[in-house]
Amino acid sequence: MTAADTDVPSVPASATDDRVTLRQWIAVSGAIIGSFCAVLNHQITNTSLREIQAALSANLTEASWITTAYLAAAIVIMPLTAWLTRVFSVRTYATANTAGFMISLVACALAWDLNAMIALRFVAGLFGGGLMPMAFTVILATLPPSKRPVAFMWWALLTVQAPTVGPALGGWLTDTFSWELIFYVQTIPAGAALACLLHGLDRSPRSLGLLRRIQWFSIAIMAVGLFLFITVLEEGNRNDWFTSDHILQLSAISGLCLLVFVAIQLFRKEPYINLRLYGRRNFGICCLLFFGFGVGVFGTMFIIALYLIQVPQYTATQVSTVIMWIGIPQIIAAPLVLWLLPRVDARLLLGFGCILFSVSCFLNVDMSFDTGYWELMFVNVIRAVGQPFIMVVLPIFATSLLEPANHGSAAAILNMTRDIGGAVGIACLNTGISRRADFHVDHVGEHVSSYDAETLARLDQLTGHFAAYSGDLQLARDQAVAALNSLVSRDATIMAYNDMFFVIGAIFAIGLIACCFLRKASAR
To answer: Is the pTM of this model over 0.90?
Structure first.
């Protein structure tokens, strides 16, 4: 027996025709809501990190482990979800995982110190990470191909709302009430998801005998490798990357562990995740696109939020209002994609999504100090319209040529690839902003000289302004020089943000080229 034969439980007979019962739609809805909860948990917590840090008497660097622990655990558990559903059945794993997620939310709200919070966030990540691929698994195992586009549309709509709703909701709850409430409030959608899964999923046989053949060594080195990899991404910029011996050591251990893990999974007869799927033409290209999509979606929101906080100095509520425009237009765009799927080649829809996302990023490369709400709203609307053309089409295209037995591995691989793309993207963009800002400071500084007429005129103007308040000419001169340096630093930072948007735009332009190499497949 091979991994391809045992990857997921047998597909129900109802998934072999076009008949879908209300009960099955309820099960799919529960899985999609669970995926929403997993993404919301990560985003809503980030908003309140400073308040949590203060309550637990930690500094910001220590508090960053609250986010790192959740993300690392979520990515570690994803490759195991296909195997866990084979062992315990889809219904048992999905419901137990959702119930565990709810319990972990309450536990995080009751955390008594920083170490407890980090440990509990790691546990929450183990449950939350399982919820994301579970949505794909339930959709693929429950619905016939003709109904899956509808489910993936709702998955795309609901999942994309989490990063837009999360910051606003988290900020409001924390400012109005307390940070503990951000965990309690998540039990509401999680409870709805659990109820839907309990009612909608059929009982199916378990394969507990697989526990006797559990690959402890492979699982251990995979967990260590992925955890250290996420740690390197999260800590690398603060430690100046590979100039730090600590980061070098973590990178070497992570790379070695992941290399051994991949080798075992490729050559073992019964791997718990079928990495050979990367070798399938359509699936491999879709994974590359999903990686780029993770970089783009999480990266653009990260850059926009950081820009608005640093340059025009928006409050958290104002930032959330701008980011909300990434989610709202998709309510209209996603049904349009669903209507176009049976009428237009899926490759064209995917390419169109890449074009819109790329254009929206290139429109951001001319940002200035005056760029604010309305300019970013227009660009975010373009980006939002493009996202469903990618989010809805990609999972359908990636799985359309796969055998049902490989759907579990496909779900885990796609979600893991996207989230790793997001983590890599944010780490690289954060470093890129810092490095390019230094580059632009040096470049602009070459043109700001005491021998330059425009510079002297600006200094005299600023000196006169400060002298009018202090009456001390030397103090006013020093203040003018400091103000000019601040302006140079500000403009250099804005140019660095522009550079990062150009990079993301280029990634999606490359993604457009990759779409040309996809083999035509039915999107239904």
So the answer is: no
